[in-house]
Design brief:
The complex is a heterodimer of chains A (115) and B (112). In chain A, 0% of the residues lie in helices and 50% in strands. Chain A is mostly beta strands and 115 residues long. In chain A, strand 5 and strand 6 form a beta hairpin. By secondary structure, chain B is an all-beta fold. In chain B, strand 6 and strand 7 form a beta hairpin. The relative contact order of chain B is 0.34. In chain B, strands 2, 4, 5, 9, 10 and 11 form a 6-stranded mixed β-sheet that branches. The radius of gyration of chain B is 14 Å and the shape is globular. Helices cover 0% and strands 60% of the residues of chain B. The chains are: A mainly beta (115), B mainly beta (112).
Chain lengths: 115, 112
């Protein structure tokens, strides 16, 4: 049973560019959350997708957007990259429809470096 | 807003017990979690506790919850060098969805 997978593992971009990160949830999960973890900090909640809609959003600008597909996989898009967007981006999945809704399982993350 | 605080560093000797502490501000937190992060890796869920429980034990791990003081602790018995990692406390913030609010993490260093 595959856990949460993310791609790519590493990415280098320059300021002003756009980036797309991808996540496939754990088998049987239908909810995907994205977190940003800056160096030396705890993860910060960006947003959560369920039934292909953004369900909840943290304190991040509109440059951060996302999408969820019918197969429950998800993308995180960041436009007009800033140096401060350099971080580890973590995807977590959970199931809103099973008895396991309170548990979020994390992928290995995508490390983004903005130069 | 919601906040979770942890001490930043803990050093123990192999075989000793480790106790990592956490305080949170959201009195409506329904679940509290402990995650482990090894260098260059994602987060591994270690254990979690429902807010109506005081204690939960899972093999070498014991979680204690003091709701009155909004204090959570994780005790690792017989700490091993493989336990060296960053440990994050997280609170479930249930509004429209289910966002986790994390502390900054406690770095546990285990020496042999």
């Amino acid at each position: 049973d595959a856990g949460v997978t993310q791609s790519p593992t590493h990415l280098i971009k320059t300021r002003g560019q756009q980036v797309t990160l991808r996540c496939s949830p754990k088998s049987g999960h239908d909810t995907v959350s994205w977190y940003q973890q800056a160096l030396g900090q705890g993860p910060q909640f960006i947003f959560q997708y369920y039934e292909e809609e953004e369900r909840q959003r943290g304190n991040f600008p509109d440059r951060f957007s996302g999408h969820q597909f019918p197969n429950y996989s998800s993308e995180l898009n960041v436009n007009a990259l800033l140096l401060g967007d350099s971080a580890l981006y973590l995807c977590a999945s959970s199931s809103a429809t099973s008895g396991d809704w309170e548990t979020q399982y994390f992928g290995p993350g995508t490390r983004l470096l903005v130069l | 807003g919601e906040d979770v605080e942890q001490s930043l560093f803990l050093s123990v000797r192999e075989g000793d017990s480790s106790v990592i502490n956490c305080t949170y501000t959201d009195s409506s937190s329904t679940y509290l979690y402990w995650y482990k992060q090894e260098p260059g890796a994602g987060l591994q869920l270690l254990t979690y506790i429902f807010s109506n429980m005081d204690m939960k034990q899972d093999q070498r791990l014991t979680v204690l919850l003091n709701k009155k003081d909004k204090h959570l602790s994780l005790r690792i018995a017989d700490t091993q060098t493989g336990d060296s990692a960053i440990y994050f406390c997280a609170s479930l913030y249930k509004q429209a969805g289910t966002a986790l609010i994390f502390g900054k993490g406690t770095t546990l260093s285990v020496s042999s």
